[in-house]
Design brief:
Layout lengths: L5 E2 L10 E8 L7 E2 L3 E7 L5 E4 L2 E4 L3 E6 L5 E4 L8 E8 L6 H4 L5 H10 L3 E2 L2 H13 L5 H16 L5 E2 L16 H13 L6 H7 L4 H12 L3 H19 L4 H7 L5 H12 L3 H10 L7
Parallel strand pairs: 1-3
Antiparallel strand pairs: 2-9, 4-7, 4-9, 5-6, 5-8, 7-10, 10-11
Helix pairs in contact: 2-4, 6-7
Amino acid sequence: MKDKLLREITPLTQSDCFTVFSRVKNEFDFPLHQHEEFELNFIQNARGAKRVIGGHIEVIGDVELVLVGPNLRHGWFTHQCRSREIHEVTIQFHRDLLDEKFLQRNQASFIRNMFQQSLRGILFTRETAAAMAPRLDTLHQKTGFESVLELLSILHALSTSKDMRILSDISFQAADTVNYNSRRIEAVMAHLNKNFEREISLSEVAKLVAMSEVAFSRFFKMRTGKTFVDTLNEIRLGHASRLLIDTTQSVSEIAYRCGFNNMSNFNRIFKKKKQCTPKEFREEYTTSGVRLFV
């Protein structure tokens, strides 16, 4: 039987705003999974464990704090961690904890942006994680509306923190959560995701949105923060990562399926983005304790 990705049914009920678990353990034993809720995960004393968020894999240090958006595959795995006292605080809250209309208001802009970025996973700095640790540790002690106010205060503090890092490729972001606040950009991204297997020129997408190539390039970079070529490569690499994880197709088959007509170019771009080769990336999922639900 082929391994399957576990869709977790969390203990969070519709009657509660959030749930929090604080525990000490000696290993990570839950398989790679995803769920509808946001998850804020604080981990301490687990150096050498491995974090998997979407298409991102990384060995962690002694303290970290990660926000995972809805329906993004994630998991932590023991890997080379030797600690017998791993401290973990997990907070899960509903997608609609804050109403969409509320999030569009100016005062909620930082949280809105953080939620959008979390759809690919956010790693906060070690300094931020350490500073938030006392509040995360004591959140489970609060009750009622006071606990909700504290959670919102924590989320706001995180949303204004510096140097947060986006973890996963855009292709791992759930399709129903993508929002570019621009019909033109949304049309271009839909076109790229539908046609990434073949050659796509700047001229082609510029015509799609009735703009000149120069104007489109400037507009696209301003709205997305990336060039058209970099974005197309990221989409292709994201789909390649999924195929490396979810199929047994050869690396060359995957490269050509994802629009890379040159293997050396595929390997070069993949290694620049992932700091490992496609073969090494696949091995990370199969040889270091990262497991799916059977």
